[in-house]
Amino acid sequence: MSTFYFAIVGTNDSPLYEAEFGVRRDESKYLNQFVVHAALDLVDDAQFMSTACYLKTVDRYNEWNVSAYVLPSNVRLMLLHEAKADDAIRSFFVDCHELCLKTLLNPFYTANTPIQSQAFDTKVSALARKYLL
Amino acid sequence: MAKQYRNIGEEAWKNNVEKVSAELFIFTYGSLVVQLVKDYEDYGAVNKQLDKMGYNIGVRLIDDLLARTGLERCQDLHATAEVISKVGFKMFLNITPSVANWSADSKEFSLILDDNPLNDFCELPPKAIQDGLWYSNVLCGVVRGALEMMQMQTEVTFVRDVLRGDETSEIRVKLERMLDEEVPVGDD
């Protein structure tokens, strides 16, 4: 079973949401954040090369691939994964994009703040089960 | 009688009322509530403020409703309840809450709102739920204001709300007393 680490990074490079799917490996918790943060520069470069939101794999670190999806508001959805699964990951990102939009429409949510809603968490886990695992 | 009110309500909605984008309305109301929350920082005070705002809307809205539909004075509270749900709510929000839970002395009833358009996209933070925020409390104020202009002093409150985890939203309307005709008080 492969692990996935999913992070939503705001416009000021701080994480708004993090989640791990699949088998948990404790020693790589901080490493995941580090890898994603390092990949943000490459995302910035890549996002101006393409007009699409989905940037496929932008970076590689040892056995991890980093895939990115940039929202029009410059919020980045980052996924750390081991295997290649472009289509599944693209569908996962697109659905997460819709979830992010719904969260933004909530009047009680301020943009660029951590997403703490339990409902959001459940929905993201369901999407991960559907597309990634 | 009920069928007649339903038709009046639908007629009014179709022909006599100007429409506005639902999303614009919902988002405006949402920002209004959030701003009140930020200003007052106490959810009980926000509830009161929403009720007051609703009251001011209601006292003016009732004239609008009567002018557009030409309805006459209702004979009893049952008819009033029907008019509120089938004509009033239909005309202004395009929803028809159902009237239920009449008390034994026919002085109280409930309006059950199956879908409240104000609630779309909204999710209350846990603190708001804990401290008892009624998100759509403005609706209670509107009903109270409108009925006060029809010489009925009422107490209108939310008892259940889907945003707080209940199955439906329910507004309880209680008639306190009938008022005598008085010289109109100046706006506060």
How is this structure best described in words?
The complex is a heterodimer of chains A (133) and B (188). In chain A, helix 2 (86-105) runs antiparallel to helix 3 (118-131). The radius of gyration of chain A is 14 Å and the shape is globular. Chain A has a 5-stranded antiparallel sheet, sandwiched between helices. Chain A has helices spanning 29-47, 86-105, 118-131; strands at residues 4-9, 15-21, 54-61, 64-70, 76-81. The termini of chain A are close together. With 133 residues, chain A is of the alpha+beta class. In chain A, 40% of the residues lie in helices and 26% in strands. Chain B contains 6 helices and 4 strands; from the N terminus they run H-H-H-H-E-E-H-H-E-E. Chain B has helices at 2-16, 22-40, 43-69, 77-93, 126-130, 137-149, and strands at residues 98-100, 108-113, 152-160, 169-178. Chain B has a 4-stranded antiparallel sheet with strand order 1-2-4-3. The model of chain B has no long low-confidence stretch (mean pLDDT 89). The chains are: A alpha+beta (133), B alpha+beta (188).
